[in-house]
UniProtKB/TrEMBL annotation:
Protein name: Prolycopene isomerase, chloroplastic
Keywords: Isomerase
GO molecular function: isomerase activity; oxidoreductase activity
Segments forming domain Amine oxidase: 107-602
Length: 619
């Protein structure tokens, strides 16, 4: 969940225009002019999204010999260069067809595409931006390497049936992901501040300080009730699931014995509790009679960080999985060395290892439907790319709907999507600054809650801060730090809707709405931090989020509450059109979108191929 911005003016990056032509041949993420050109007084210089124009190849030679440069404004000149790069990107697609076309290279799209390539399918992943990763991509400014989205990870090193779904995908692709490990984050709440450690015992001393007299007893009661359920919650590996009756073989028959064994070990009471796995987690809390305000607020915070909804909206299975990862003996958190972009790089390596293709700067304008079936896509500029078996959209449900001809979409399907509530958007703050004066024991993660009474889902109330250079120093120049702060899916899009990004009104609102993040950063970093001395200062808004991630209204995703609705499956009313990502089951979050991509990939191959993959990775 996040975005990117650009720093430094055109002049500082002008040499990138004159890289040799070979630099455009790679399908991998590479520094390009598109990441540096700003076509307006943009969102404090985040890297520009791809700009596409119809532009004949002849104009490149005008550019090349300089004849057309004289007398043109620099702006016009740069647009010609960009347009030529767009034309070259069409060539990188290779043959204009594939077995499966994947729209979007977010985590879900890359997991889907890479697994399909592993299944020996001809896969083409089309990405509108000039780098892969979607909300998880990274970007670089002045030698500072920024995460644009998720930075709190766990389970990458786990293996077997109960592993993180993303870890299972990487294992299937034969890709490793070196990580730094840690076990704590700083928490700043109205009651005070403390270093919160994961694990079965450390949180009890925090409860002694900040919670009521019964809090320890209630927390132990919660752990005793839900940790045994984790065996059932994790008994069915996401990589085993598919969207057809073949699931009876790949998941049902294969894992039924272990699932039944886990129920037997839990006894009648545990088995009864397992029936609540698909109900809101608040029902478990209420059934246990937990009343301490601090515990209930803390659980709401964890649920919101995991899925964008509080405990009354998150599936119990999701929370139980998280508790099993964070509150068991020997657990740890992980951060990928070289940043969250390393996750994307690993998935791209896996895609290309099995001859899958990734085409950047390839904006899909429409999904082409013929005789009621999805047969391919049309790119901006008019190029048609045929899909022989399927089209998979990694875009949100609202953006996918906008790619389809309205006349072919059943009205009930349209209405269901249009009526689905959305999570709000984000404010982002990316900083690069000198580490001098900053305490040496600075941790990577900091969570600031300003007011419990307003709720963790209230706007301007919770700020998350990540300083990944603490664990991966290569993300910043020597002696420097890189920082990403954001409000997690709580910024109302309505405040920004219709604003001109060039206007003073927009700039003033940015300054006003970003102040809560600045204050949180100053609280976390201490008196040695001076905002005026930051070498990179980038502020992103819901409009930035909408523009760079091409997300409808800049949304975090569907605000679907457990017990009141369910995330859609992966098929659509249009034959040969499938969806993956945070608009589909199992929902929002890195593990969830990785699972969704895997489910779609599995569904597009035979049961025997699917079973062979499960055997190969040992699950």
């Amino acid at each position: 969940m996040a975005l990117r911005l650009s720093g430094g003016g055109i002049g500082a990056n002008f040499p990138h225009f004159f890289q040799p032509l070979s630099s455009f041949k790679s399908k991998r993420r590479t520094p390009t002019v598109l990441a540096r050109v700003s076509n307006d007084a943009l969102d404090t210089s985040y890297p520009s999204p791809t700009l596409t124009h119809n532009f004949p190849v002849l104009d490149f030679f005008h550019f090349y010999n300089g004849a057309q440069v004289i007398g043109q404004s620099l702006r016009s000149f740069l647009f010609k260069v960009i347009s030529w790069i767009q034309w070259v990107s069409y060539l990188s697609i290779g043959k204009p067809e594939a077995d499966v076309i994947v729209i979007g290279s977010g985590i879900g799209g890359l997991c889907c595409g890479a697994l399909l390539a592993r299944y020996n399918q001809d896969v083409l992943v089309l990405e509108s931006h000039d780098r892969p990763g979607g909300a998880a991509h990274s970007f670089e400014i002045k030698d500072y390497k920024f995460d644009s989205g998720p930075s709190l990870f766990s389970g990458f090193q786990s293996r077997g049936p109960q592993a993180n779904p993303l870890a299972q995908v990487l294992d299937a692709l034969g890709e490793s992901l070196p990580c730094a490990t840690y076990d704590s984050w700083m928490v700043y709440i109205p009651e005070g501040e403390f270093l919160s450690r994961i694990g079965p015992t450390d949180f009890f001393k925090d409860l002694q300080t900040y919670a009521g007299p019964d809090a320890e007893k209630e927390w132990r009661k919660l752990l005793d009730a839900i940790l045994p359920l984790s065996t059932a919650a994790m008994a069915l590996p996401p990589l085993s699931i598919r969207g057809d009756w073949g699931v009876l073989s790949t998941a049902g028959a294969r894992y039924a014995p272990s699932l039944l064994k886990s129920f037997a070990q839990m006894g009648p009471q545990g088995a009864l509790g397992a029936t609540k796995l698909l109900r809101p987690f608040s029902e478990i809390i209420n059934s246990l009679g937990l009343k301490d305000p601090f515990i209930r607020n803390w659980v709401d915070l964890l649920a919101f960080l995991l899925a964008g909804v509080k405990s009354d909206g998150i599936l119990s299975a999701e929370m139980i999985y998280m508790f099993s990862e964070w509150y068991k003996p020997g657990c740890c958190l992980e951060y990928p060395l070289h940043g969250s972009g390393a996750v994307v790089d690993a998935l791209v390596r896996g895609l290309e290892k099995f001859n899958g293709r990734l085409s950047l700067r390839s904006h899909v304008e429409n999904i082409v439907v013929e005789d009621g079936r999805a047969i391919g896509v049309k790119l901006r500029g008019g190029q048609f790319v045929r899909a022989k078996k399927a089209v998979v959209s990694n875009a949100s449900m609202w953006d996918t709907l906008n790619l389809l001809p309205k006349e072919v979409v059943p009205k009930p399907y349209q209405e269901r999507i249009q009526m689905t509530p959305q999570c709000e958007s984000f404010m982002h703050l990316h900083l690069g600054f000198d580490a001098e004066g900053i305490r040496e024991d600075l941790g990577i993660h900091h969570i600031v809650v300003n007011d419990w009474e307003r709720g963790v889902d209230a706007d301007q109330n919770v700020v998350l801060i990540s300083v990944p250079s603490v664990l991966s120093p290569d993300l910043a120049p020597p002696g420097k730090h890189v920082l990403h702060a954001y409000t997690p899916g709580t910024e109302p899009f309505e405040l920004w809707e219709g604003l001109d990004r060039r206007s003073n009104e927009y700039k003033e609102l940015k300054a006003q709405r970003s102040e809560v993040m600045w204050k949180a950063v100053e609280r976390a970093l201490g008196p040695g931090f001076d905002r005026e001395k930051c070498e990179v200062k980038l502020v992103g808004t819901p409009l930035t989020h909408q523009r760079f991630l091409r997300r409808n209204r800049g949304t975090y995703g569907p605000a679907i509450k457990a017990g009141k609705g369910s995330f859609p499956g992966h098929s659509t009313p249009i034959p040969q059109l499938f969806c993956c990502g945070d608009s589909t089951f199992p929902g929002i979050g890195v593990p969830a979108v990785a699972a969704s991509g895997a489910i779609v990939a599995n569904s597009l191959v035979s049961v025997s191929q699917h079973s062979e993959l499960l055997d190969a990775v040992g699950i």
